[in-house]
TrEMBL record:
PANTHER family: 2-HYDROXYACID DEHYDROGENASE-RELATED (PTHR10996), GLYOXYLATE_HYDROXYPYRUVATE REDUCTASE B (PTHR10996:SF283). Keywords: NAD, Oxidoreductase. Residues 7-322 form the D-isomer specific 2-hydroxyacid dehydrogenase catalytic domain. This is D-glycerate dehydrogenase. Coiled coil: none annotated. PROSITE patterns: D_2_HYDROXYACID_DH_2, D_2_HYDROXYACID_DH_3.
Length: 323
C-alpha cells in the first residue's frame, strides 16, 4: 500500500521533518511562506493529510472544496481558532492538536512577560543600548514588585495552571482565577487558588491579569474598554493566548491614558500586522508570538502531530482528536 501523502504547511525542525519523511510521502512548503486560501484549497484536494499552523486560515471555504482528498488536519499547535471546526465536522474531516507538550514553555513566556513589564526590562535595555544610561541612582527606572502580588488568571486550563504553579511556588503569588467550568479540585488546591464568580471580580482584584482562554469567536474582545476600566491603575495585562481576545484600540487607549500600568503581549489581532499604536508605547513589552518557540518544544509538537497521524492512519482514534 502506498504511503499517505502529507502536506506540512510551514517548515518544522529538521529532526521531525526527517521522521515524517520516513513514515509518509511528506511534502513541505519549501520557502516557508504563509499559505494562501487558494493554496490551502488545492492542498485539501491533493493530500491525504494537511498539517496546518496558526498562520493558515483553514476556513469553511478551504474545508468546503469539492471532493477533498484530505481526511485529517493535524494542527501543529494547541490553539485551533484558525480552523473552522464546525465545517470540518460537517465534512467528516478529523482535526487534532498538540496539547501538553507546549504547556511549560508557553507558561514560561507568560512569566517572562510579567517580570519584564513589571521590572521594565525591555525599556531598561533600550535605555542602555541607546547610550542614555548615566549611572545608578535611587530613583532610576523604578518598577513594580512581582513576588507576593496577586495573579489573576482568565481561564484555568493547562497553561494557566502551569503559570499558577510557577507564580505561586516560585514567586509566592496569590492566585485567583475565572473559569467557565469547575476545574479539578486538586489543581486548585495545589496553588491555593481562589475561583472567582466573574471575570470582573478577577479584573478588580488582580495585580497581574493573564489571559489563558481560547481565541474563539465568542471570546473576541472579551477584554474590552469597559473591562479594562475595572483593572487597578497599578495592574498589568499579560496575553499569551490569542490577539483577538483583547480589543487593541481599547488596550492602547488604556496604556496611553495610564488607567492600567502596562501590558506584556505575545499575540496580536491581525498578527504579524499588529496595531501600530503598540509600537509607540514604553509601557508595553511586545514579543513576536514566541510562546512555544524552543527547539525542544517545537520538536515535541511535531512528534505529537506524528503520533496523531500514525493513530489515524492505523484506524485508531488519535489521542488529541478535537473533532
Ligand atoms: C504555536 C500557539 O507555536 O500552540 C499554539 O496554540 O499559540 C503557539 O505556541 C502556534 O500556534 C503554532 O501553530
Amino acid at each position: 500500500m502506498s504511503k499517505p501523502k502529507i502536506l506540512v504547511t510551514r517548515r518544522w525542525p529538521d529532526a521531525v521533518e526527517a521522521e515524517l519523511s520516513q513514515r509518509y510521502d511528506a511534502h513541505f512548503n519549501r520557502d516557508d511562506h504563509p499559505m494562501t486560501v487558494a493554496e490551502l484549497q488545492a492542498a485539501m484536494r491533493d493530500y491525504d493529510a494537511v498539517l496546518p499552523t496558526v498562520t493558515d486560515s483553514v476556513n469553511a471555504e478551504v474545508i468546503g472544496v469539492a471532493n477533498p482528498r484530505c481526511k485529517i488536519l493535524g494542527n501543529f499547535g494547541v490553539g485551533y481558532n484558525h480552523i473552522d471546526i464546525a465545517a470540518a465536522k460537517a465534512a467528516g474531516i478529523t482535526v487534532t492538536n498538540t496539547p501538553d507538550v507546549l504547556t511549560d514553555c508557553t507558561a514560561d513566556i507568560a512569566m517572562l512577560l510579567m517580570l519584564e513589564i513589571a521590572r521594565r526590562g525591555g525599556e531598561g535595555e533600550r535605555h542602555l543600548r541607546s547610550g542614555q544610561w548615566t549611572g545608578w541612582r535611587p530613583t532610576h527606572m523604578l518598577g513594580s514588585k512581582v513576588t507576593g502580588k496577586t495573579l489573576g488568571l482568565i481561564g484555568f486550563g493547562r497553561i494557566a495552571q502551569a503559570m499558577a504553579h510557577k507564580a505561586h511556588h516560585g514567586f509566592d503569588m496569590d492566585i485567583i482565577f475565572y473559569n467557565r467550568s469547575q476545574p479539578p479540585r486538586d489543581k486548585i488546591d495545589y496553588v491555593k487558588a481562589r475561583q472567582c464568580a466573574s471575570i470582573e471580580d478577577v479584573l478588580r482584584e488582580a495585580d497581574f491579569v493573564a489571559l489563558h482562554c481560547p481565541g474563539s469567536q465568542e471570546n473576541t474582545h472579551l477584554i474590552n474598554a469597559e473591562r479594562l476600566a475595572l483593572m487597578k491603575p497599578t495592574a498589568y495585562l499579560i496575553n499569551t493566548a490569542r490577539g483577538n481576545v483583547v480589543d487593541s484600540e481599547a488596550l492602547i487607549a488604556a496604556l496611553k491614558a495610564g488607567t492600567i500600568m502596562g501590558a506584556g503581549l505575545d499575540v496580536y489581532e491581525g498578527e504579524p500586522n499588529l496595531h501600530p499604536g503598540f509600537l509607540e508605547l514604553e509601557n508595553a513589552v511586545l514579543l513576536p508570538h514566541l510562546g512555544s518557540a524552543t527547539s525542544d518544544t517545537r520538536i515535541a509538537m511535531g512528534q505529537r502531530v506524528l503520533e496523531n497521524l500514525d493513530a489515524f492512519f492505523a484506524g485508531q482514534t488519535p489521542r488529541d482528536k478535537v473533532c
